[in-house]
Amino acid sequence: MEQHYYSPVETAPLDEIRALQSYRLLKTVRHIYDHVPFYRNKFDELGLTPEDIKTVDDVSKLPFTYKQDLRDNYPYGLFAVPQDQVVRVHASSGTTGKQTVVGYTQRDLDVWGEIIARAISAAGGTKHDFVHISYGYGLFTGGLGLHQGATTLGASVIPVSTGNTKRQIQIMQDFGSDILCCTPSYAMYMGETIRDMGIDPNALKLRAGIFGAEPWSEEMRKKIEELLAIKAYDIYGLSEIMGPGVSYECSEQTGMHVNEDHFIVEVIDPDTGEVLPEGSWGELVFTCITKEALPLIRYRTRDIGFISRKKCSCGRTFVKMSKPNGRTDDMLIIRGVNVFPSQIESVLLQFPDITPNYLLIVDREGALDSLEIQVEMAEGAAFDAVRLIEKREKEISGAVESILGIAATIHLVSPKTLARSEGKAQRVIDKRKL
Ligand code: DLL
Q: Which CATH class is domain 332-430?
């Protein structure tokens, strides 16, 4: 595929990127020490001064920042600029506890637009494309983030937001959408709806999708690519660091390049905080090095992944991170076994007549945990006899047990019986916590 780099920095040699990171890290450390009392206090407690940070290698001397720190300083306590420089606020979708508020200066928005323009370019997008945005607009960073990026690129934005799926598809047909941006679960749902409406996906102009905001497996990618007849690219980010665009996938589709000129990524052992070598799975930690309004350092994402500096065929030199395969806080511990919903998704999708629409119900019977997996059969799958359904349920249960080491009761349910999501999908009901 022909490569479209939005910025020359994407292919800069590593030593240049590191020099830039060192320079920007020093500036950021000075900025937060001078303007954020929370960080000044933390530095003072640790006996650390901004002068102790000399290069990017010193990042590991800095203290971690946790989501709880944002909550404790709710809403604006960690902002590093006066309110008259803040031109936008967003909030994280946080499912538990108070949501967290994040802010941007005009320059922060410009940077955000640029890094998402890089992501759209890496997916083959140009200013000649219509970019159909079905992430939610509002406090969630998905809609306005992609909007900003597509605008920066000079593409034509179709700001549809979520909802009214049939109308979305009508718009896709009539307006000639080239690139779709939404959550992977919503992309699946759109694919199903297109089929239900009797539309041939190959007849649509759509050729690529930029999907993120929730974990999705390689198997799910294949299903989406088939259903929509497109190439599906991953995009990662979190509100606290910027929103979508912290990292983005390229034509190789084997992980996401981190925008290293704006963020430093580390992988740590979530229990000890120790920095792990390249290639090890651990918690992703990000440090903002150009943010003005809310420059968080060593932010603990709770997302589990690894990084790799292996040469990428697309020519970009930015380090790559794996698809996060779960979060330290949505890891389920079932009968002592650590399980991520995405691992179960991968097992389920090895069966051709099964869809990625599933729900995990964890409960406790007496002292024992139980796992029930409800999963939808594919439309038109040849399961007309109860016997066949039972047979498939046993096979899936066997696969889950042999791959993950836990027993699960499988219930195949009819197509379209599980609730659909237009934003982030809810995959787990843990009744043990109720
Ligand atoms: O979800 C930002 C975003 C919007 C990213 C649109 C991509 C596309 P939050 O609502 O703050 O921000 O949620 C951040 O979502 O810590 C991950 O757990 C998860 N997440 C985001 N992107 C991915 C991805 C947005 N590509 C949290 N794969 C993060 C897996 C993802 N998980």
A: alpha beta
Q: Which residues line ligand 1 (CB under 6 A)?
A: 92-93, 135, 141-142, 212-215, 234-239, 243-244, 301, 303, 323-324, 327
Tokens of 392: 């498939």
User: Residue 332's CB: how many other CB atoms inside 10 A?
Assistant: 20
Rounded CA separation 318/314 (Å) = 11
CATH 3.40.50.300 fits 1-327, yes or no: no
pTM for the whole structure: 0.91
Lowest model confidence (mean pLDDT) among 12-26, 85-99, 224-238, 275-289 = 85-99
**Fold matches, 1-327 and 332-430:** no
Domain boundaries defined on the chain: 1-327, 332-430
Report how far apart the first and last C-alpha atoms of the chain are (Å, whole number): 50
Q: Which atom of ligand 1 is nearest to the CA of 323?
A: 28
Give me the pLDDT at residue 365, please. 83
The ligand 1 atom nearest the CA atom of 302: 16
